[in-house]
């Protein structure tokens, strides 16, 4: 392909081993899922890989299975497929709600799970044309020396804005990763670090093979704040999983996206277990969220509004889930 994206070759490996071998042969190359993030960025001059490794022909990445012992979601499964799957909708509603809330229907038909989990971080000074960024002396994340959001520091605060990660985090997901050195499994949380420049912990040659979910998940839900009701990234996205036994919380997990450079599980919710979900607990939850989210001036919406909205979404989802018969045991 040529055009604004620059020239690159595309290969279509038949299996995971061939994909990682192709990467070894061209170390600066990039893995390609649906291309709805990567190709947009390349068109804006964000990156100049000589080779794209198109993973869409790899059958192993395309499996979607809900079994008695849990679920396995191939890295190449499309968001439309997950959002519409009746077994996943019944067992893992937060995941299906998050998948259905990504971009628009045409994107979801090609966008993949791995592409969503490995989405680049975003910032109003970064997701711009080459001309715009050049006119503003670029920035620390790509080609520049200064962060326009926090010019006194040397840290990039670009936000991770994928919708699926918080849902998978509250559902207890782990991931399988493959590279030239072999395969490994890890909790999804370990895929991320809080650094807008390098938010993924994968080695350059590693690719995501699948995400796995435990069986018997607690009831869950996902909601996001966005400027437009459709086709918009989360300015704050929240997933909650909750169970109560005899009116007292036995599971409470909250995860967030869109506010920090990584999606993360909220710390401190275990201290609320054993209590009924009353106004005091909801106030406590609100404080936990407001303390741990760090929205910066990376979007047009005010940071403090995003902080308050994230806390409100967490309270709202927790109260809504606690009121459902499925949450009680
Ligand atoms: C207008 C618009 C609106 C959008 N709105 C949203 C939104 O609301 N919410 C949201 O979450 N996203 C949104 N997106 C971003 C994007 O569409 C989705 O995140 C999508 O899920 C990305 O998946 P993909 O397969 O297209 O990724 P790609 O673009 O193919 O890849 C994205 C990144 O993941 C890497 N990658 C792909 N597959 C693998 C793998 N198997 N292993 C390791 N790395 C891999 C790529 O190298 C690249 O760095 C939007 C995009 C556009 C253009
Ligand atoms: S947070 Fe700073 S360094 Fe990171 S993309 Fe934005 S302006 Fe660039």
Summarize the entry for a quick read.
The protein is α+β, with helices and mostly antiparallel strands. It is 29% helix and 20% strand. The relative contact order is 0.12.
Global geometry: globular
Oligomer classification: single chain
> Distance between the terminal alpha carbons, to the nearest Å?
56 Å
Order of helices and strands: EHEHEEEHHHHHHHEEEEEEEHH
Whole-number tally of structural domains: 2
- What's the total helix number? 11
Largest sheet: 5 strands, antiparallel
Low-confidence stretches: none
Describe what this molecule looks like in 3D.
- It is a single chain.
- The chain is of the alpha+beta class and 329 residues long.
- The protein has two domains: 1-54, Uridine Diphospho-n-acetylenolpyruvylglucosamine Reductase, domain 2 (2-Layer Sandwich); 63-118 and 159-323, CO dehydrogenase flavoprotein, C-terminal domain (Enolase-like, domain 1, 2-Layer Sandwich).
- It contains eleven helices and twelve strands.
- It has helices spanning 16-25, 38-43, 79-84, 86-91, 93-100, 105-110, 113-117, 130-135, 164-170, 279-292, 303-322; strands at residues 9-11, 30-32, 51-54, 64-67, 70-74, 174-179, 182-187, 207-214, 220-225, 236-245, 248-257, 264-265.
- It has a five-stranded antiparallel β-sheet with strand order 4-5-8-6-7. The chain has a four-stranded antiparallel β-sheet with strand order 9-10-11-12, sandwiched between helices. Strands 1-3-2 form a three-stranded parallel β-sheet, with helices on one face.
- A hairpin with a 2-residue loop joins β6 and β7.
- α10 (279-292) packs antiparallel against α11 (303-322).
- The structure holds flavin-adenine dinucleotide and iron/sulfur cluster (SF4).
């Amino acid at each position: 392909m040529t055009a604004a994206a620059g020239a690159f070759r595309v290969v279509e490996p038949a299996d995971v081993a061939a994909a990682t071998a192709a990467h070894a042969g061209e170390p600066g190359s990039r893995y390609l899922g649906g291309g709805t993030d990567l190709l947009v960025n390349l068109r804006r001059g964000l990156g100049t890989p000589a080779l794209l490794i198109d993973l869409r022909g790899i059958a192993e990445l395309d499996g979607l299975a809900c079994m008695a012992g849990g679920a396995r979601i191939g890295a190449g499964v499309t968001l439309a497929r997950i959002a519409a799957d009746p077994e996943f909708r019944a067992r893992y509603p937060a995941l299906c709600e998050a998948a259905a809330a990504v971009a628009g229907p045409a994107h979801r038909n090609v966008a993949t799970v791995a592409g969503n989990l490995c989405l680049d971080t975003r910032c109003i000074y970064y997701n711009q044309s080459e001309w715009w960024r050049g006119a503003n002396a670029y920035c620390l994340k790509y080609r520049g020396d200064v962060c326009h959001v926090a010019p006194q520091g040397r840290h990039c605060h670009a936000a991770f804005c994928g919708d699926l990660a918080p849902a998978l985090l509250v559902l207890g997901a782990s991931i399988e990763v493959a590279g030239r050195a072999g395969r490994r499994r890890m909790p999804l949380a370990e895929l991320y670090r809080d650094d807008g420049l390098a938010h993924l912990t994968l080695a350059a040659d590693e690719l995501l093979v699948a995400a796995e979910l435990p069986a018997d998940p607690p009831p869950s839900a996902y909601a996001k704040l966005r400027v437009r009701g459709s086709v918009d990234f989360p300015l704050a996205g929240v997933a909650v999983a909750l169970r109560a036994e005899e009116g007292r919380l036995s599971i409470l997990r909250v995860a967030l996206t869109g506010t920090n450079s990584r999606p993360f599980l909220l710390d401190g919710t275990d201290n609320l277990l054993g209590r009924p979900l009353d106004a005091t607990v909801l106030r406590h939850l609100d404080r936990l969220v407001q303390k741990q989210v760090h929205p910066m001036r990376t979007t047009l919406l005010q940071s403090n509004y995003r902080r308050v909205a994230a806390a409100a979404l967490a309270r709202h989802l927790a109260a809504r889930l606690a009121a459902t018969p499925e949450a009680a045991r």
